[in-house]
Specification:
This is Dimethylargininase. GO terms for molecular function: amino acid binding; dimethylargininase activity. The chain is of the alpha/beta class and 284 residues long. The protein contains five helices and 17 strands. The chain has helices spanning 24-40, 85-94, 132-141, 193-205, 239-246, and strands at 6-10, 44-48, 64-67, 70-73, 100-101, 115-117, 122-126, 147-151, 155-160, 166-171, 179-183, 186-190, 211-215, 224-226, 229-233, 253-256, 273-275. Strands 2-1-17 form a three-stranded mixed beta sheet, with helices on both faces. The longest helix is centred in the first third of the chain and has 17 residues, at 24-40. The radius of gyration is 18 Å and the shape is globular. The relative contact order is 0.17.
Amino acid sequence: MFRYTHALVCRVPVAFRTRAEIDLEEARRQHEALCRLLRELGVDVVELPPDELHPECVFVEDTAVICNGVALITRPGAPHRQGEVDTVRAVLKKELGLPIVEISDEAAKLDGGDVLFTGREFFVGLSEWTNEAGARALAASFPEFSVTPIKVSPGVRLEGGQQGHALQVSEPRHLKALVSMAAPDVLCVSKGAASQEVLRRIEREASFSYQTLTVPEDSAANVLSVNGTLIHRSAAEAPETCKHLEGKPELQRRQLSVSELAKVGAGLSSCCLLVRRTRAARTF
């Protein structure tokens, strides 16, 4: 489970720095480090050129859901991102030989970052970017698995307001920013309220029982499980989490920095589409 042969990534465009106060060169170094690590773990990395018309193209996770050798092309909830799927569709079909499934319902919204596949079932976050129609489209595409919608509440942060009063500001979150897969049958969540609430909702609705890896920092809830290795945020970005994981020698771990990419709410999983291509897949 969670063994992959290929990963599709997209290089960071110059336009990416318009999304926030981004150190572009550092963002590119961090992205390249992810690609190197995936290759070290035995994954063949396919790199798409940067798309200057779509500043968020680096977050390829949102453009497709891949399971059992089939690629469902999503309908990103942010209208300005919908053009990103065309290149991804072509590469998945022509270079990786995957069968392609399209969403016909024009009312559907579905971001890959809201889709959590446990290896046994799907959970779909109902968020700013994904709606019930999107969840139904996923269920129709992968009828061999149960698909459970999970409401994603926005996170809350404190900011200084007028006269020094604190304001609560809601931030939309993808499901996989709050819960991800740390290993087969192991959910990774943070101690934060939003992450814990999603975990409770999943545990109420799940068809299977899962273990839980709970990390101290909210930003560390998004991890990657690739070919037996847990990839998590670096000690510079999540020091308490790294200390916590040091006490779990049974985990084979690698850490990465994604501080610049995270400035626009991205996590480790956002920057790659992981594929397990079978021998039956076509090549061109």
